[in-house]
Known about the structure:
The structure holds 2 protein chains of 2 kinds. Chain A is an alpha/beta fold. Chain A has 3 domains: about 1-50, no CATH class; about 55-265, P-loop containing nucleotide triphosphate hydrolases (Rossmann fold, 3-Layer(aba) Sandwich); about 265-330, no CATH class. Helices cover about 50% and strands about 10% of the residues of chain A. A 7-stranded parallel sheet of chain A has the order 4-2-5-1-6-7-8, with helices on both faces. In chain A, strand 6, helix 7 (about 185-190) and strand 7 form a beta-alpha-beta unit. In chain A, helix 5 (about 70-85) packs across helix 9 (about 250-265) and helix 10 packs parallel to helix 12. Chain A is globular. Chain B has 3 domains: about 15-420, TIM Barrel (Alpha-Beta Barrel), CATH 3.20.20.240; about 435-490, no CATH class; about 510-660, 3-Layer(aba) Sandwich (Rossmann fold), CATH 3.40.50.280. Chain B contains 25 helices and 15 strands. In chain B, helix 17 runs parallel beside helix 19. At the A-B interface, helix 2, strand 3 and strand 4 of A face helix 20, helix 21, strand 12 and helix 22 of B. Strand 3 of chain A pairs parallel with strand 12 of chain B. Guanosine-5'-triphosphate binds near residues 67 and 161 of chain A.
Amino acid sequence: MAARALPDPEMLANGVAARDRAALARSLNLLDDKRPEARRRAAHLLATLPADKLDRSGHLIGITGPPGAGKSSLTSALIQVWRQRNLSVGILAVDPSSPVSGGALLGDRLRMLAHDHDAEGGVFIRSLACRGEYGGLSAEVWPMSLAMLAAFDVVLIETVGVGQKEIDISKMSDTTCFVAQPASGDSIQFLKAGIMEVPHLLVVNKADMGTAARKTLTELRTTLKKQFDPDGWQVPALAVSATKGTGIDKLADTLESHRVWLVEHDLLATRRKRFQAEWILKRLREEFGRFGIERLGGEAGLFDELTRRHGSPFDQYDALRDRFLANWKT
Amino acid sequence: MEKQPTKRDKPWLMRTYSGHSSAKASNQLYRTNLAKGQTGLSVAFDLPTQTGYDSDHVLARGEVGKVGVPIGHIGDMETLFDQIPLAQMNTSMTINATAAWLLSLYVAVAERQGASQDQLQGTTQNDIIKEYLSRGTYIYPPEPSVRLITDVVCYTVKHIPKWNPTNICSYHLQEAGATPVQELAYALSTGITILDAVRDSGQVSVADFADVVGRISFFVNAGIRFVEECCKMRAFARMWDKITQERYGVEDEKMRRFRYGVQVNSLGLTESQPENNVQRIILEMLAVTLSKNARARAIQLPAWNEALGLPRPWDQQWALRMQQVLAFETDLLEYGDILAGSTVIEAKVQALIQGAEAEMERVREQGGMIPAIETGYVKRQLVTSHTERMRAIERGDLKIIGLNCFQQTEPSPLVGEGEGSIMKVDPRAEREQIERLQAFRTGRNQADVDAALAALADAAKSGDNIMPVSIRCAHAGVTTGEWGQALREAFGEYRPPTGIDISLHDSPSAAVQEVRDRVRHTGEELGRPLRILVGKPGLDGHSNGAEQIAVKARDVGFEIVYQGIRLTPQQIAKAALEEGVHLIGLSVLSGSHMELVEDITAELAKLGIPEIPVIVGGIIPVDDEKVLRNQGIAAVYTPKNIDMNAIMADMVDIIRASNGLKPYQQKAA
Ligand code: B12
Ligand SMILES: Nc1nc2c(ncn2[C@@H]2O[C@H](COP(=O)(O)OP(=O)(O)OP(=O)(O)O)[C@@H](O)[C@H]2O)c(=O)[nH]1
Ligand SMILES: [Mg+2]
């Protein structure tokens, strides 16, 4: 049997933009594929996707929080509201990988089974294993969320259940939502101490559990009173119950109001460029270390350069990589 | 000198768990079984009936009349007990999520036969809690499920006083891998959950509470380690006595008695050299009969061909005869408790009690059985135990004759090629049942049906006992699917945690290392880590195999998607597409593999991913295996394939072949 041929990137790009599910699935497979030829085609695919969609439309949301806080259940509840509002939804759900075997249990979609019966095919869920990355994400998340943005109105990334310190997701989503457990004093302490990066939205889930949730919410609200994110957005806190479905409409509204705020303040497109620059820098750091970054002109310089120029993440990355290797040889 | 005839104890109730195809066919079977000396009935229902669907529901495809009798309405129930006077019969019904409904149908039929409710004797399994952990025929979330159990208990105590309203099950926990300590701890914790709920429901007066306690019975397992199992029964009796006295203040010793029925272990029964199962079954029966002080009230035994498929009448007769030989030929029933006073037995009993009490305490700390199920704690404990068992078999530490040792064998005259040695349900049974159901629907008074269903929905919301209105539904001609749906709308549905997110702590063998290399290298060759989907299509609740495959696959480095039981072919195909998997592994043990595999391959083609290879595992008769292979199924696995590393290595090669790579060659060191 002959090796299976790799798909044609332009056909895929057209399919994705038309929200053809099989084309999107194959695109995500291609974006995951590390073989050189696949990588070339993936870069071509990303470059062919409608740039305006990737740069400034849709809503890229990150959901993070400790293990078992209810991120997946909440995602499922949100999907329902978004579908009622006629928005199509793409989900990227990241799960931990075993450091020993590399294997992973992709368990988040189990909580989202209710949407399997979506008649219009307006929900698409892809799970990812973190594959040894720290920070609750995997390297594939950024390119894959671009493909998803080309197809859906809302793209949501669920991170691995993480500790409070590692919110890489805030470097990769328009709106970051932190889900706290009721009675989780830790989150509050971390916030106060400035250890925890401030998200755009704090949600206390499991409000159906009663007083504990209410108490946590009050404490969070007091702590947050004068919390603004670096862009000047004041961070709200909400209580919801993912399983009982209470507060979800309000949550969807609040997420939307942050997106509107970003658009009004002309921040959406700039932020997306920053995300890509962050992603590229992280990959370069992994491959060439601090030394490599210095050789390429230093973090700040690179960051500047990357946010000014256009291009798919793979193309931008490859260009810098080539530059480094060329410099190295001379 | 003339010998005095010795006084013998009365033997236990002897049953055979049976039912198939249709109410009519099952009725005939029951009447023959009774004629052979069986002393009670034990009804097996098909999966649609157990999960509250009508035979013509999409999810019922391939399952109607397969593993039990389909009961869609009062007409079926009347046929099932035709010429069997319910006033005299003792009937055990293995029914859980829909127990209130099937009991209502039973009551309604008895009333039509002219029997009064207080004459009825028998058992509804009605332990929905263990369904979340093992048996898989849950429907509603835990809270309404506990309420349904409670309603049946409270109703029967008042109106059907000789009924055993709930049979708290440890049987199924052992079948899902539980150790004796886990069986004790979780079953007794379940007993506490149910009794607390009955007490707190306010439906039973304080004065009548001891009667409730006296009606609670258990359904227990007995495995091959029969000495330990014997001790487990004694531990059960002592612990229940203590709980009912201390927690519920029951003074009457009789009401505190641990009353239990048994089905002996089937998990350890093998497909390889299946005749050895007879020895196993008999030894296991000893565990529950030797102690007079902790002897089973009712016993049903599996058949020698348990792991091959459904037993035929002759196979079941053989199992019944095993019981009869023990009860009537041996001298067992002539003595008092032959183990009393043994210090060895006593020490083991104490050790089991201590272990179980410690585990019960852990459950209590988490808020009781229900929270401990909702968080996945209990299920993870069971999956962990089962994984340890599988690893012990694989290593050869746990010996199973004919399976992992002494495999060499003469050809067995018992096992004919395919068809010969199991029961096959007539494929026409499903269609005929659907035709009867549809005819029944047109023949009933729709206004009565609608009014009864509206009353059912009201009771579900108001919290009134569900039984009176369900009996009304039964008489009105409501169907099983309608009853189930009305409560689905009122209560919602639920899926429990799968429990496969466990951590394994042991150093991998060389074989495991080798498979890990295969998985990793092949992933590198294909550009991304290997991903597989393990799917459980249809209504089948046998999750052990899928769980073990999933745990193992993760352990050797696959990224795996497993979403639990009871998925439609559409759901499985959709997940395979979205997740970009390299391989789909289906697990089907309920006998509906042909229909389900056909549907799934059709669905994959429809979604444009026909190239993904599909493999199937479970109870697949040899004849079907050949057909499946011809249909393009890449591999078929059955219980004899215990070498999990070999299965994993195969999966890699199947993925390689479908991607145009040569079979894996181990890299020279
Ligand atoms: C354990 C068991 C149960 C447990 C299940 C617990 C659980 N959560 O899984 C309990 C007690 C709950 C149970 C209940 C029932 N059971 Co049962 N059960 C068994 C039993 C004894 C063993 C199955 C098992 O778990 N084996 C251990 C696992 C690890 O093995 P396995 O699944 O075979 O998997 C191996 C291979 O098959 C293969 N494999 C399996 N799946 C996959 C998937 C992939 C991808 C791959 C690669 C390989 C693979 O690899 C595994 C490793 O070797 C079998 C008989 C037997 N001895 O096989 C009957 C059996 C399967 N049960 C049967 C029946 C009828 C029932 C009931 C439907 C009865 C009823 N009418 O109510 C109920 C209801 C269950 C439901 N909801 O569907 C029948 C099915 C008959 C048929 N197919 O025609 C059997 C065959 C017994 C019999 N002879 O009557 N059961
Ligand atoms: N009572 C209650 N339980 C909830 C709620 N939301 C989620 N849960 C439960 O919390 C547990 C974890 O839920 P998940 O949605 O899987 O949590 P998660 O944050 O995605 O978990 P990981 O991805 O494993 O980190 C499950 O048992 C849920 O049923 C809620 O609103 N109320
Ligand atoms: Mg999750």
